[in-house]
C-alpha cells in the first residue's frame, strides 16, 4: 500500500473518532445534569430560581434558611386545681336545721338517722350522760332479747310467746310486754342482750318498769341496724330479723305516726308516756322508712312535751328534718 493510501486511511479514522466524540458529548451532559439535580433534591437545598425570587420551600415555610428552627417554648403548667372546700359536718347541719323547731318548744330531743345504702348518717342531742325514757319503743328491744335467748337455746318461739310478741309490737299491749320482760330476765336480761346488739348507752328500767328504760337515739339506731341489717352486722339470725321486721311492718293504723311522716314506713314502733310528776309527755318513734327511693333508719326520742299531740308533731318535724339533711348529703 502506498504512503498516500495510508495517509487517507489515517485521516478517515481520525475523522470518524472525532464524529463519535462529538455525538457522545450531549449524552454525557444530560447524564451529569440528572445526577446534579438528584443530589440537589436529596440534600434538600432550596429550589433553583432566578435571582431575587421569593419562592417558598416545599414545606410551605418562608424561603429556605440555614438558621435552625427554634422549638416553641413549652406552655406553662396549668395552675393547680383549687383545694376542695371542707366537707360539711352533717351533725352540725342537723343541729342548725332543728334549731327553729326546738326554739318553738320547751321539750328536748335526741335524733339519729342513717342511710341504709351508703352508711352515712347524722345525730343530734346525743351527749354522754343524757338519756331519755324509752316508753314503748323498748318493746322492740325486749323482742330482740327474747329472740337472742331462743337462738342460744336452739329453739323457736313458742305459740304463746308469738302471741305476746304480736300484741306487744303491733298494738303496743303492755300486759304482753310485762310477760316477755319477765321471760328475758328483766333489766339484767335486756342489758346482756344489748351488749351483743351494740347498744352502749341503754340501761333497763328497774323492777317491772320496762318503760323507764333509759336510752339515746344513737342506741336506738344501733338496735334498728341489728334488726334491719344483715348477718354480718347482727347477732340476730336471719329468721329472727325477718320476724321482727314483719311485726314492725304491721302496726295498728292509729299508731302509724312519728318517723313514718318522713317517708313510707317498712318498720315502725312508737312510744308515749305521760309523767305523773310533771304532767309532761315522753313521745318517741323508731323505724325504717323509704323516701325518694332511699331507705333510712330513723330514731327520735323526746321528753317534756305539753301534750301527746304536741309531742307527736315535734317528733314528726324532727324526723322529716333528719331525713332531709341525710338526703341532701347523698346528693351533694
What does this structure look like?
This protein is α+β, with helices and mostly antiparallel strands and 332 residues long. It contains nine helices and seven strands. The chain has helices at 3-42, 90-103, 138-152, 159-170, 174-184, 186-197, 217-228, 238-248, 308-331; strands at 108-115, 121-124, 132-133, 214-215, 264-274, 281-291, 294-305. The strands form two sheets. The chain has a five-stranded antiparallel sheet with strand order 2-1-7-6-5, sandwiched between helices. Helix 4 (159-170) packs across helix 5 and helix 5 (174-184) crosses helix 6. The protein is globular, with a radius of gyration of 47 Å. 35% of the residues are buried. Mean pLDDT is 82; it is low at 1-28 and 37-69.
The total count of helices amounts to: 9
- Give average pLDDT, whole number: 82
SSE-based structural type: alpha+beta
Can you tell me the overall shape? globular
Distance between the termini: 123 Å
* Percent helix range: 40-55%
* SSE series: HHEEEHHHHEHHEEEH
Q: How many E strands?
A: 7
Low-confidence stretches: 1-28, 37-69
Please compute the radius of gyration using only Cα atoms. Answer: 47 Å
Please outline the major beta sheet: 5 strands, antiparallel
Question: Can you list the strand order of the major beta sheet?
Answer: 2-1-7-6-5
Estimate what percentage of residues fall within beta strands. Answer: 15-25%
